[in-house]
Amino acid sequence: MQRSIAIAAAGAVAVIVGGALVATTILAPADRLAACRQGNVAGGFDRLGGPFTLVDGSGATVTDADVITEPSLVYFGYTSCPDVCPVDNARNAAAVDVLEEDHGIAAQPVFITIDPARDTPEVMGDYARNMHPRMVGLSGSEEQVAAAAKAYSTYYAKSGDDPDYYLMDHQTMTYLALPGQGTVEFFGRDDGPEEVAERTACLVAAAS
């Protein structure tokens, strides 16, 4: 009787261990990504991000495959923005420094204009260089910018009738895109550079 109980108990342990092994080997990657995230997207993160074709600061046409070659903090805004864009871009630049210094991860801030009429490739290149040596500034035609914004489900619209001194309404999310993974997280304005770096490092580790 005791031998039967022992065999049954051993079988139960084997099932538990086996189940844990399956969970670790099959479910762990997705679970680890979910454990690192605070954001949530209806329909999944596959709905955010995707192919784009834009123009970099040197005037070269680039695609998402050319740009997202390392963990990238992607932000849509414009250089004439009087308030939120400089703060958000500075936060993203600081997060990149924290990632490198504290986690040994090379990453880049990516700034995509929503105002290509004023933000030419040259303007974006100068802005990016002044903000951070690793920042990538991207512009393009109205159609190219609209397609990139649509891929990331980000909203923007011109505000005001003055042809030179108008503002742009826009969302202020920063998207974390990983090479070969796509968009895996987004950050709000209240997330500080340390928080952005910590979650990014967690997601980079989970995705590798």
Structural class: alpha+beta
CATH superfamily of the largest domain: Glutaredoxin
Which sequence of strands runs across the widest sheet?
2-1-5-4-3-8-9
Q: Please give the share of residues in helix.
A: 40-55%
* Overall outline: globular
Tell me the CATH topology of the largest domain.
Glutaredoxin
Radius of gyration: 22 Å
| Major sheet characteristics | 7 strands, mixed
Q: Give the H and E element order.
A: HEEHEHEHEHEEEEH
Organism: Limimaricola pyoseonensis
Keywords: Copper, Disulfide bond, Metal-binding
Disulfide bonds: 81-85
Binding site for Cu cation: 81, 85, 170
Question: Helix and strand layout, with pairings?
Answer:
Elements: H1 2-36, E1 53-56, E2 61-63, H2 64-67, E3 72-77, H3 84-103, E4 108-113, H4 121-131, E5 136-139, H5 142-151, E6 156-159, E7 167-170, E8 174-178, E9 182-187, H6 193-207
Helix pairs in contact: 1-6, 3-6
Describe this structure in words.
This protein is an alpha+beta fold and 208 residues long. The chain folds into two domains: 1-36; 45-207, Glutaredoxin, CATH 3.40.30. The chain has six helices and nine strands, in the order H-E-E-H-E-H-E-H-E-H-E-E-E-E-H. The chain has helices spanning 2-36, 64-67, 84-103, 121-131, 142-151, 193-207, and strands at residues 53-56, 61-63, 72-77, 108-113, 136-139, 156-159, 167-170, 174-178, 182-187. It is globular, with a radius of gyration of 22 Å. The N and C termini lie far apart (49 Å).
